[in-house]
Design goal:
heterodimer; A: Pyruvate-ferredoxin Oxidoreductase, domain 3; six-stranded mixed β-sheet; 22 helices; B: alpha/beta; eight-stranded mixed β-sheet; 33% helix
């Protein structure tokens, strides 16, 4: 059967999951496939799923690494609940991932990963035949002896088998490119760049890729080939981006664009480390990075830098934020700009470090000593990490206040196409450093806590003649900033700090409805990374005829000024969250609305199916 | 290290030359601004609220006296503190001041100095703040060697919380939290600082203000982290803790004032000396005919190994025949500062990679057009 005879099928959307041993290069395969798909103009969403162990024992289920991509010709909001195609490099990968394959889906298996020893490592029974079982259960199983074919393809390169076997993933990628009618060039140029100094390795990988593609043409294993149409996307220049990279670029853009130098003080922690890593290489863009000895030193150094006239930024995850909490209270008292990024992970304690959760919302708002109001914002998707982080920095500087950005492991590592913003789309920062003649003459001393109309105090940095002053964590007298134990003053200052934060509601964008009408029977409210799943579920149930509305909150403290009014126009409010019910508490507490939660806390994102079911059930409940 | 230095500077000599000229430039440029200021101009308008008789008063006075000598404009000086009696210090200085949180002054100061190398940054801290809750940041600041001056007031007690034992309290010390005697082996702060690769390590005492002034000046002049431990008497909770070195009768036999390139002598009439037998120090009586000054150990501030041996003179001076406690500069070593390396690295990156615009930053390696 020639390629012409193979039926070409058009599909609207496809979800593929690559899986194999953590040493199989699955993440690289996935990200290369993603780049090629993105360049072809599809909308897409990805979800890397890797073990927290760097190298778990080879061949075991705990060592399985996965990468899921969902792409298509319609707007894609999630990496997909389940996949249409499952690529497995060994038995353990099949065991770990079969449950995420749609009924009747396609398994592309490396048959060399299903020998006795592989089955035993994956803890299948001695006489198990998992591929045959899958066929019997209605899955389409395509077995390819990738190891043998790759060795065959590369036998005259002179490379030892150990090195040849490392190109197995490229062979598989070649097959997939054929299967989805995608070009090889982007990956070829990637390989040539990556192995510039090792031309032999580069050549081997390119050849494996090509031979994989040719194998697809020649083999009779596939009875059909797929072609997915590109999505209608807004015109512009795009790139593919993960949440952590977008957050990094948001910070770097501030350094480049705002006129405020940026100082990042951080300590490595999963899943936030990539931000420190990325920014460490961007020193020429004006970001100063500093890897501190611990979480506390990280934020303390950022505060020191803010005091000196930089924007101090620190990045971490829940357990690290807990360690930083005392320093955050200091920043609230000092009223200095500070940005704290919390890439949330599943907790408590060490919890599930590589898994996702939204359980730090109450920590962000309340998890500190004393009354310490700060600003909390949360992006809805990987690409949005850029704009939200940039906005967080702007609020911090213009309002002299700590701002916390809540992302999570899911959007931090997930990726999607991002339309590059123009320089003109980035708001300028309105700020200035205080000068001696503005507020005081030589007779009257400088008043470091004299506030403007927004209750913002001046940013008076060392090196400014005539403004020498002392500030600290002790309660300060209104305006003078001197230590004060006066009860009325403490009450006043506590209220001022809160009012200053609340005032920010006046300058942030008003809440908008994401889907549906402004009033009705059921409103779904979400925040953070659950956007994609909720959006898809709401779209689906609306298509089925349920008049459900959806709004997604990005400003969590303060809430947008019109939020209460919007909520009150609905009979019922459903708040799906990956925690035990945190936003729902805040909404009920703030607006006395009958909000109810839908809470999952399994370390994985919502599936669209479970949300659809819950929304429909809530809508139909009398 | 050498490779990195090589990348950032033509050679290490160039580096030290540069940093020296930089400091020199700074002082000549700025000296006139503050030339007419006196010590009292550095006193803030706040009432000083330490207990009457507290050793902190002397330290404050000596630091204020030192300030005009720095040749740094008042507005370029910042005092950073954590929590404790010592940490109220910034409020009393008419400079910029930041009173932070317990133990973190060194970390805050690191961020400040790294981002603002033009400032003269001082950390005032105590034995609890610096060595207990802040121990981690302290050792890391020393190894990184930012040009920050640490003044650690050691009173061997927690004063502000009213009398609990500290990491420098001696074994058996009876305090509120050790009514049956402390079991903790105390830190030897100077050995700790040397072990953390501190580049300047010194000791002074509140009761000898003249010597304190001298060592403060040396600390300020050191390019790199200077660590100065100041024995400071807490009149309320640990009065007399440093009596062996303040008591008129006993102090000369218990203390040794060390000076670079000078032999180690002590005693009322310099009648005792220290000699080295291999690496083993030994007290010798110069009045006997057996030893003369020429046999003695000559102090070398650049010798880290010998500084270690000196720092180990840490015996209980209530006991007869113990080694005398050294006062002065144990080690003063020239070593690259973190902020110089950092800013050199930034400059080198800009030179190597250029200063691309925002579009280059955002577009990354691969973009595509949708029309």
């Amino acid at each position: 059967m020639s390629v012409k005879e193979k039926q070409e099928k058009f599909k609207k959307e496809v979800t593929i999951r690559f899986s194999g041993d953590s040493g199989d290069g699955i993440q690289l395969t996935g990200s290369q496939f993603t780049s090629t798909i993105a360049i072809s103009g599809f909308d897409l969403s990805t979800f890397p799923d890797f073990p927290s162990e760097i190298r778990a024992p080879a061949g075991t289920v705990s060592g399985v690494s996965g990468f899921q991509i969902h792409f298509g010709s319609k707007a894609i909001h999630t990496p997909g609940d389940s996949c249409d195609v499952l690529v497995v490099m060994n038995a353990a990968a099949l065991k770990a991932n079969l449950k995420s394959l749609k009924t009747g889906g396609i398994i592309i298996a490396n048959s060399d990963g299903f020998h006795k020893r592989d089955l035993s490592l994956a803890q299948y029974p001695v006489d198990a035949t998992p591929l045959q079982d899958a066929k019997d259960s209605g899955y389409t199983v395509i077995e390819i002896d990738v190891t043998r074919l790759t060795r065959e393809s590369l036998k005259d390169t002179g490379l030892p088998n150990k090195d040849i076997d490392r190109s197995k993933n490229m062979f598989v990628l070649g097959v997939l490119y054929w299967l989805y009618s995608r070009p090889l060039e982007p990956t070829v140029s990637f390989i040539q760049k990556k192995f510039k100094k090792k031309p032999l390795i580069a050549e081997a990988n390119v050849r494996a890729l090509n031979d994989g593609y040719t194998f697809g043409i020649a083999t009779e294993l596939f009875s059909e080939r797929y072609n997915v149409e590109a999505a209608p996307i807004e015109p512009g220049t795009y790139r593919n981006i993960t949440g952590n990279d977008a957050t990094s670029l948001g910070i770097a853009a501030v350094a480049k664009n705002s006129g405020v130098p940026v100082f990042l003080g951080s300590y490595p922690i999963t899943p936030a480390s990539e931000i420190l890593q990325y920014l460490s290489g961007l020193k020429h863009y004006g970001v100063t990075t500093y890897q501190a000895e611990d979480e506390i030193a990280a934020i303390a150094s950022a505060i020191g830098a803010s005091y000196g006239g930089s924007l101090g930024v620190t990045t971490s995850s829940g357990p690290g934020i807990a360690l930083k909490s005392e320093a955050i209270t200091l920043a609230v008292m000092l009223e200095l700009p500070l940005v704290i990024v919390n890439v949330q992970r599943a907790g408590p304690s060490t919890g599930l470090p590589t898994k996702t959760e939204q359980s730090d919302l109450l920590q962000a708002l309340y998890g500190r000593a004393g009354e310490t109001p700060l600003v909390v914002v949360s992006p809805a998707s990987p690409a949005e990490c850029f704009s939200i982080t940039y906005e967080a920095c702007r609020i911090a500087v213009e309002h002299m206040i700590p701002v916390m950005v809540l992302t999570d492991g899911y959007i931090a590592n997930g990726s999607e196409p991002w339309k590059l913003p123009k320089k003109s789309e980035l708001k300028p920062f309105r700020f200035r450093f205080a000068k001696a003649d503005e507020q005081s003459d030589s007779q009257t001393p400088f008043l470091p806590y004299k506030r403007d109309d927004n209750l913002v105090r001046p940013w008076a940095i060392p090196g400014t003649k005539g403004l020498e002053h002392r500030i600290g964590g002790l309660e300060k007298q209104h305006e003078t900033g001197h230590i004060s134990y006066d009860p009325d003053n403490h009450q006043l200052m506590t209220e001022l700090r809160k009012e200053k934060r609340d005032n920010i509601a006046k300058v942030i964008p008003g809440q908008e409805m994401d889907e549906g009408s402004d009033s009705g029977k059921l409103l779904v409210v979400g925040w953070g990374s659950t956007y994609g799943a909720i959006k898809s579920a709401v779209t689906d149930v609306r298509e089925e005829g349920c008049d459900v509305s959806y709004l997604h909150i990005r400003h969590l403290s303060p809430f947008p000024a019109n939020l209460g009014d919007m909520l009150r126009r609905f009979e019922r409010i459903l708040v799906p969250e990956l925690n035990q019910g945190q936003l729902v508490k805040l909404l009920r507490d703030t607006y006395l609305v009958p909000a109810e939660g839908y809470n999952r806390i399994r370390g994985v994102p919502f599936t669209v199916a479970e949300l659809r079911e819950k929304i429909t059930e809530t809508y139909n409940r009398s | 290290m050498e490779r990195l230095l090589h990348e950032l500077f033509t050679d290490t000599k160039d580096f030290y030359q540069t940093t020296r000229t930089m400091s020199a430039k700074q002082s000549t440029k700025t000296a006139p601004t503050n030339g007419n200021l006196k010590g009292k101009d550095f006193a803030s308008d706040q009432d000083v609220r330490w207990c009457p008789g507290c050793g902190d008063y002397t330290i404050l006075k000596q630091v204020q006296t030192l300030m005009p000598k720095l040749g740094v404009p008042r507005e370029n000086i910042v005092f950073v503190a954590g929590i404790g009696c010592s940490s109220r210090f910034p409020y009393y200085m008419n400079t910029y001041g930041l009173h932070g949180i317990h133990g973190r002054a060194t970390a805050i100061a690191t961020g400040l100095k790294a981002s603002r190398p033009d400032l003269s940054v001082w950390v005032t801290t105590g034995d609890g703040d610096c060595l207990s809750i802040g121990g981690n940041h302290f050792i890391h600041l020393l190894r990184r060697n930012l040009d920050i001056n640490i003044l650690m007031f050691n009173n061997e007690i927690y004063g502000l919380t009213k009398g609990q034992y500290s990491p420098t309290s001696h074994v058996g010390h009876v305090t509120k939290t050790s009514p049956m005697g402390s079991l903790d082996s105390p830190f030897n702060p100077l050995t700790l600082a040397l072990g953390a690769n501190g580049s300047f390590v010194a000791r002074a005492i509140d009761r000898d203000p003249k010597h304190l002034q001298e060592i403060l000046e040396r600390s300020a002049g050191h390019k790199g982290t200077s660590f100065l431990e100041i024995y400071q008497n807490c009149v309320v909770f640990n009065d007399g803790a440093f009596q062996p070195w303040t008591d008129k009768e006993r102090k000369s036999n218990n203390s040794i004032y060390i000076y670079d390139e000078k032999p180690l002598v002590f005693g009322k009439e310099d009648e005792y000396g220290i000699r080295l037998d291999g690496h083993k120090p030994e007290i010798v009586d110069l009045r006997s005919n057996e030893w003369s000054v020429n046999d003695l150990w000559v102090h070398d501030e650049k010798d880290r190994n010998k500084a270690f041996i000196l720092s180990r003179f840490f015996e209980d001076n209530w006991v007869e025949g113990a080694f005398p406690r050294p006062f002065g500069v144990l080690l003063a070593e020239e070593r690259a500062t973190y902020e110089d390396l950092l800013h050199r690295q930034i400059a080198a990156a800009k030179e190597r990679l250029g200063e691309p615009g925002l579009e280059d930053l955002l577009s990354g390696e691969e973009t595509w057009e949708v029309r």
